[in-house]
Sequence to fold (448 residues):
Amino acid sequence: MNNLKKQVLIFQLNGEPVEIFADPAESLLTVLREKLGLYGTKAGCGKGECGACTVLLDDRAVNSCLVPAGKVQGRKVETIENLSQGGKVHMIQEEFVEKGAVQCGFCSPGMVMSAYALLKENPQPNPEQVKVAISGNLCRCSGYKQIEEAILSAAERLKN
Amino acid sequence: MSYLIASSLDEVLTSLRDGSGKARVVAGGTDLYLQDLPYGLVDLSCLKGTTVIEQEDDLISLGSAVTHTAAASSPLVLSRARALAEGCEVIGSPQIRNIGTIGGNVVNAAPAADAAVALVGLGAEAVIIDIEGNIRQEAVENLYWEYNRSLIDSTREVMISLQFKPCMDGEGSAFTRFAARRALALPMVNAAARVKLENGLVKEIRLVAAPVNPAPTRLVKTEELVIGKPVNDQTISMVERSAAEEVEVRGSLLRCSARYRLHLVGVLVSRALKTAAERAMGQGKAGE
Fold:
């Protein structure tokens, strides 16, 4: 990589400010995995079709493979690593386990992030809204039913 | 590929000038970023003015970097330009809609881009500035050169905004599409309609179908047939027949056969008109 192209990027990552020296044309996915060592975000198709690389940019789900790192300057990025706090996994993740919504597990981080983005914006989604929220995430094991149930069940827990 | 996040329109124009044809504009980048481009990219999506949705005088104006999500959820778009909200809410996936922009949807020049088809249905014009500072305005359907190639030269021109007249009382718009799946799928056909009724009869109408040509295409013959008529079952059947007769389509391995596409053009255009007319008559406004 040509060092001349690199610049300082400052953004908020999982609640903490980070400052890195990177090529702004590189994908956010590459920066997260290779520069910052956050391997929870999966590299899938690399074309915005599978959703395995989903992270939140300013609270909205995006395909990190399609976001040039330069775009996150001054903004807020959240990855799957931020969901477990104090050694305890997030309530959405607990519901994924509870409902058996994990088969091979490759799509899980992306699915969980899409669910997380949905519940942030709409804590009480109906089943159709859940389907739309994960419509950009492919599960190659085709275990969608359990995933939908897990998200609805997480929403139910938010109510209480 | 170098990548600049521009902080002002001046910076965009200066970078393009300095690039002498080797730098080009990018907005959301969901299409462009996947191509192996030799260019320097100048990103305009963080400019303040390019993400604004507003109504000024008799025009709704959307900045070219308004995301599909923002357009689809804007109260102004939902109430006064429903076709655009419907076009934007079916593009790609939620993740794509959160980054992809309406300006990019037009300049990328795909023949059946959902937002672009809705914009042509609404009669939108693009406001374009070039590196010398000249500003021009062009109807969206006139911005297509050939399949997947825009007449906007992104190495020296920047689309700033898209403007159209809001649908006021007696007017309605709608967008329809059919695809193999409900997400992440190219439309086999999509269509948009905008109609103005006066005393229950069609006063003004725009019917658009795609992919029929490189650009979203107005069905002018069918439009003429409908002027002065009520939008009843008879008119809807006539539109279904006429729309399919008016276009010539190709079959495509990616989308569907020519025969099926012709059928879909008739069905989707007439459905769009029916819904637009219902909205014009004030039915199914809120909560639908």
Chain B has two domains: 48-164, 171-280. Chain B touches chain A through 24 residues (CB under 8 Å).
